[in-house]
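Hi X.,

You mentioned you wanted examples for the new student's onboarding notes, showing what a folding record looks like when two proteins sit in one file. Here is a clean example. The first protein comes first, with its sequence line followed by its structure tokens.
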Amino acid sequence: MEIIDFTSFERVLASLFEVIRIYNTDTSDLITRDSMIQRFEYTYSISLKMIKRYLASGAFVFENIESMTFNEMIRLANKMGLLRSNLEKWDNYRQKRNLTSVPSLQPLIHAPSS
């Protein structure tokens, strides 16, 4: 079984929490808001990559991890105790992530909850 290094994930998560804290002190700062959105995007992306990496690490045998739907992957990771939140919350993260990729919708995004 491959040993997975979570250092990069821990760094991006700390970076996201840091910018959320700063943004909450001044929600009118658009530069901080944009930074928070960007940090949320890459934290979300790295989270999904870490889940896939863990599932593919050799400890578990699955037909094809790449063909799993988002819902299947999150349900399985949750069932295995890898996540602190359920599919509903992860689906909310995914919806917010999808909003961040459409610049005209970015004003509708609120700070991700920590």
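Then the second protein repeats the pattern, sequence line and then tokens:
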Amino acid sequence: MTGRGPKYSFDKETILRNIDESLRLMKTDHVDVLQLHGVIPADFPEGKWEETMEVMDQIRRQGKALHLGLTVCNKAPGMYGFPAGYGYHSILPFAADPRIEVI
């Protein structure tokens, strides 16, 4: 599954590959925050969100990330962060997940 543009992919293999590559490049064993950028709630088919969260939770349990987060992509390409353009209701399933921390 990909988000807006070729660099956004929330599948298990991509997330695992990206965190390991990032840790290697930064020469560290963990990051403070692992954050998915450009999440479009409607793009997650049934069960896909749980698969994504399982791999992120795995990364946290392994100590590679201390906290998990996400940014929401509004309907207009390139607009991030403020979920009102997409509707507050669309963020509720994500924010309700106890594995996600809201800032």
